[in-house]
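Below is a filled-in request sheet from our internal design queue. Each sheet records the structural input a requester submitted and the sequence that came back. We keep these sheets so that new team members can see what a complete request looks like end to end.

REQUESTER: design group, bay 2
PRIORITY: normal
MODE: inverse folding
CHAIN LENGTH: 83
BACKBONE (tokenized):
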């Protein structure tokens, strides 16, 4: 009885730890997407309106999700110096 409760607890904690990595992975992936949009808007030869929208959306994605990554890091690291 005690061993089965232990294994259930370990299994649940491992599954929860696997899902916690998505709190960092998804904002990092969206930050990269924002950078790709900015780069493509700068090097594109298409319509100026489309390039401007791509650059604004890319900048907004980068700014929001990079600040989200910093706030997650600040909450995890106790001695984070930038407040």
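RETURNED SEQUENCE:
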């Amino acid at each position: 009885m005690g061993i089965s409760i232990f294994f259930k607890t370990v299994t649940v904690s491992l599954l929860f730890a696997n899902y916690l990595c998505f709190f960092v992975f998804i904002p990092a992936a969206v930050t990269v997407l924002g950078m790709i949009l900015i780069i493509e808007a700068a090097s594109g030869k298409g319509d100026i309106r489309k390039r401007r929208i791509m650059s604004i959306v890319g900048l907004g994605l980068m700014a929001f999700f990079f600040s989200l990554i910093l706030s997650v890091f600040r909450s995890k690291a106790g001695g984070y110096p930038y407040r």
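SHEET NOTES:
- The chain has a mean pLDDT of 77.
- The helical segments are 2-20, 22-43, 48-76.
FILED BY: M.R.
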